[in-house]
Amino acid sequence: xxxxxxxxxxxxxxxxxxxxxxxxxxxxxxxxxxxxxxxxxxxxxxxxxxxxxxxxxxxxxxxxxxxxxxxxxxxxxxxxxxxxxxxxxxxxxxxxxxxxxxxxxxxxxxxxxxxxxxxxxxxxxxxxxxxxxxxxxxxxxxxxxxxxxxxxxxxxxxxxxxxxxxxxxxxxxxxxxxxxxxxxxxxxxxxxxxxxxxxxxxxxxxxxxxxxxxxxxxxxxxxxxxxxxxxxxxxxxxxxxxxxxxxxxxxxxxxxxxxxxxxxxxxxxxxxxxxxx
Length: 277
Fold this sequence. Notes:
The chain is of the alpha+beta class. 25% of the residues lie in helices and 26% in strands. The protein has helices at residues 4-7, 21-31, 51-56, 80-89, 109-115, 143-153, 173-178, 239-249, 269-272; strands at residues 15-16, 35-39, 45-50, 94-99, 102-108, 136-138, 157-161, 167-172, 181-191, 206-216, 253-257, 263-268.
């Protein structure tokens, strides 16, 4: 039985409160992470902050007001089978590993697949776990629109369609986030320094100028950031082979094609971990 300690990531990218949303965004972009554990100064885990949380709370600046506090966690000695069930039951992509309240690491769906299932002799065919419904997007879709579609459809990737309707590439959240840049944004807040009852005063209010950073996406279409070197499998490909291809190519989903090379489905890492239940 493979345990969490054998597959988990110990060198965790996290953010320490108090901190701003922009600080979290910068780390997400730099390290290509869709979410981050939030810890306090004692290194105790207090929440999880995700890109979705940030986008859905555009007017909040502090992480503590945006992060998700009711998180699930596991222990280093737990089996990957137990973790797989938690991830699937609660529709999670990763879960923190905790010991006495302290953050010890993180174990994600991809860790279980690449460092666990890829080593197991699981010969069930891909067709048992593949999805026939494939999330797609037009290659000319602007990046900002593509990111919002991902957030609201709760899909972290899309197959990109060309002008003739054929598959021309694949794009995920990390591809889009990596293309963005942080720019300084000047916010002006007016301060009324008039005394009480001085409604008649004609002097203008003082202005407080605050410089903050904002993540902006370039005016580019999906086709300029998508991956075009696609790895594919067939519906008869064994599950452990799919896991090995994901590990080899550092990917989280693989298109499934038929004998004619036509797209018939997609197999994701989150689909593969169902083989552990």
